[in-house]
Amino acid sequence: MALVKYNNNSLSAITAASGLTAGAMTLIKEQTASSSATISFVDGTSDVVLDSTYPIYVFKFINIHPSATQNFTFQANASGGSGYNETMTTTHFIPAHDEADSGTSLGYQASLDQAQGTAFQRIGKASTGNDECISGELWLFGISSTTYVKHFISRTNNYNSAYSQEEYVAGYFNTTSALDEFQFKLASGNIDSGTIKLYGIKDS
To answer: Are 132 and 110 in contact (CB under 8 A)?
Structure first.
């Protein structure tokens, strides 16, 4: 996010809050799940912007709660594409720690990465306990480029059976076509509740 600096002279010239420079992160769209099989963000639909307007896009996941404990996943479509099956190569590792301070782990998850795969990529594991959920974010870079592949970084944390489990996922969509549609879903079952927000970052 861009840092806006003011000195005494610039502050004294401001006569209203509207005179302050807006932050670089702009909320584009918010969707709230309610027994939802999928949540999709499609450029040009329902005020969604996923084009060259912003060089970086960020999805934020807030209290995603599933109907059953399942992988929380995402995929994309290239412009004019369908099926949410773009080719990606990814890397994935998980640290975990329990409330009793008796169990810890840190390891690469070879079974959860992809090498030129087209499946939905796991970016977390949503748990079904009444007070359990998953939260985090997904960063997307240069999705409108028709020259480069499309990089992403995801970080989520879930509360699962008294464990704090964090998941780090990164990779790239191996296509030089622009990406303009993204979909989130559980590997099975519905997203009972939770919010996904899409932001664009300017001047980045």
So the answer is: no
pLDDT at residue 11 greater than cutoff 50: no
Cα-Cα-Cα-Cα dihedral of 102, 66, 157, 195, to 10°? -150
- Whole-model pTM above 0.70? yes
H or E stretch covering 125: strand 121-126
Say if residues 35 and 190 touch (Cβ distance below 8 Å). yes
How many whole angstroms separate alpha carbon 40 and alpha carbon 149?
A: 22
User: Measured between alpha carbons, how far is 36 from 33 in angstroms, rounded to an integer?
Assistant: 5
Rounded to an integer, the average pLDDT of 108-115 is: 97
Measured distance CA(20)–CA(14) in Å, rounded: 7
**Tokens standing for 52?**
């060259």
Q: What is the pLDDT of residues 184-194, one digit of tens each?
A: 999 999 999 99
> Which residue is associated with the tokens 């780090």?
168
The CATH topology of domain 22-201 is: Jelly Rolls (2.60.120)
Tokens of 130: 């009444």
CA distance to 40, 162, 166, 185, 190, per residue, from 76 (Å): 9, 33, 23, 12, 19
Helix, strand or coil, per DSSP, at residue 170: strand
Looking up tokens 């401001």 gives 14
Q: In angstroms, rounded to a whole number, what is the distance separating the alpha carbons of residues 27 and 36?
A: 22
Backbone angles phi, psi at 19, to 5 degrees: -80, -10
